[in-house]
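Homework help board

Subject: predicted structure for assignment chain

Our instructor gave us this sequence and asked us to write out the predicted structure in C-alpha cell form, then describe one feature. I got the C-alpha cells but I'm not sure how to describe them. Can anyone check?
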Amino acid sequence: MTMLDTSNPGTDTSPRSLDAVVVGSGFAGMHMLHRLRELGLRVRVYERGSDVGGTWYWNRYPGARCDIESVDYSYSFSPELEQEWRWSEKFATQPEILRYANHVADRFDLRRDIQFDTRIVAASFNEAAGQWEIRSEAGEEIRADYFILATGCLSVGNVPDIPGLDTFAGSVHHTGNWPHHGVDLAGQRVGVVGTGSSGIQSIPIIAEQAASTVVFQRTPNFSLPAHNRELSEDYLLEVRAGYAERRHLARYSNGGVPRVDTTVNAFDIPDDARHQTYERLWEEGGLNFANAFADLRTSHESSETAAEFVRQKIRQIVEDPKTADLLTPTTYPFATKRPCVDTGYYATFNREDVELVDVKATPIQEITETGIRTAEATYTLDTIVFATGFDAMTGAINSIDIRGRGGERLRETWAAGPRSYLGLACAGFPNMFTLATAGSPSVLGNMLTSIEQHVDYVTELIDSARAEGAALIEATREAQDGWVEHLGDLAGKTLFPSAASWYMGANIPGKPRVFLPYVGGVGTYRRLCERIAADGYPGFTRVRQSVAR
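My C-alpha cell output:
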C-alpha cells in the first residue's frame, strides 16, 4: 500500500488522485479508513475539525455523555482494543469518549491519512473518467474512485432565527459547537433555549455553576434517569470475557445493544406486574425503560402506560405543581421522540435560582442587547446557550454540493426527503456511499453497532466489485424507490410520525416532514443486508467500464 504524504497541499495545484475519499473522522470515518487500508487502497479522510472524534469533538457542553452503555458504545473489530481499554463509568462522558477516539487513532496510526481543518464543499462525478472530482473550501482538488460520506447524523447545529441575536452584548454558545477551552459561567445569569437531550444534560450542570438560570422550553421531553455508576474491575473483567457473545447479541437486537428483545405487549400482563416492570427499569436507569414492552411504539394505549408512569415520576420529583405540569409531556406518545437520559434534570427545577419559561404560551419575540424578550416578560442575561439540536441526518450531506450523473444535484433529488437504497447508496451517484444516516437504523439504536455494520458492508461491496473487475457500483432507481416506499410503510405502522421530532425533520423550518431512519430494527436490517449480499447484491449495478483518465 502506498503511504500518503500528510503535509499540506502547499503550492501544488494539480489534483490529488486517490482510490477513496472519506469525509469525516468520527467513529464511522475512522473505521472506514482502517477497513479500506486493509484492502490496500489509497485513502484520505478530510475533516473540518482539528482532530478526530466527530460529534464528540464538537459537543463539549457541560454534562455531555453517551446514553448507550460505554462498554457497548465501542468498536468490536479489534479484540485487542476491546481488552485493553478500560471504561470508568456506565455512561461515559464526552471527555472519556474523546480519549477513546484518540486512543484508536493512535493505536491504528490513522492520523497520517487524515487531513484536518479541511471542509469539503463540492463533489461531482466525472462520467468520462469514472471518478469523483472533489473540492475543499480552500480550493484543493482531489480525484477519487470512491466518495464516502461519514459526516454524522448530528453534526450541523440548528440555531433558531430569532430577531436581534446579533445585538446581544453577552456571550452566545451552541451546545453542538462548545468552546474547547470551556466556558466560565460562575456568577453569570444564563438563559438556556431548548430542552432536548443536550439541554437536559447541560441544565443541571449550568445551574450548579451559574448565579441564575432561565430555561426557555417549547416542548417538554420524556427523560429517564441514568443512575450512572463507576464500573468495577470485576464487572469489566466479566464484560471482556464475554465480549464475543455480547457483540453478537447486540448485532441482532432491535437497538444494537446486548439484550433479548421482549415479545410481551404492555397489556399482556396485569397492571401491577406492568408497574413493577416499569419501576425495575426506572431504577436500573438508561434507555431500556423505553423497550419495556414490544408495542410501546405501535399502540397508543400501551405507550400511554409508559408515559403516565414517567409523568407520575416528574410530579413526585418536582415540588412546584405548576412547574411539574410544564415539564410533563402530554402532546405526543412516549418514545416517539428519542427519550433523554439525565442526572438530576427534574430536581434541578426545585432550585430557587432556576426558572422555567413556557415559550409555547409566551413565545420569544426578540433577543435584545441585554437578554431575551418573550411575549410576556424580559429576561436580563449575561450568556445565552442554544440547546436547539441539529439539522439531523441530512444537514451535513446537503451542505456539500454533490452532483452525480448528468449533473444531477443530490440536494434537488432529496428536496422532498432523502432517497437511497438501504441508506447506503443513491441512484445516479455511482461509487458514493453514506454511512449510518437516513434510510438505515442509525439514530434509533447504538450508533457504533450500526457504524461497524455499514463500514463492513461497504468494504465488502467494494472488495467484491473490484474482484470482479467492476469499476462502478450504483443503486438502481427501482431498488431505491422500493426502499423509500418500504421505509415509509414501516414508519406508518408505528407511532413515530405522530410526533414533531427531529426524526421527522420537524425542528428545521422548511425541512420535509419525512421519517428519516429505518424503524425495523438493527438486527432485522442486518439480516436483510446479509441476505442481499448472499444473493449477489441485487439492487446494485456493478459495471466494468473503460474510462479515460
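Reply (TA_rk): Your C-alpha cells look well-formed. For the description, you could write something like this. The two ends are 21 Å apart (CA to CA). That's the kind of observation they're looking for.
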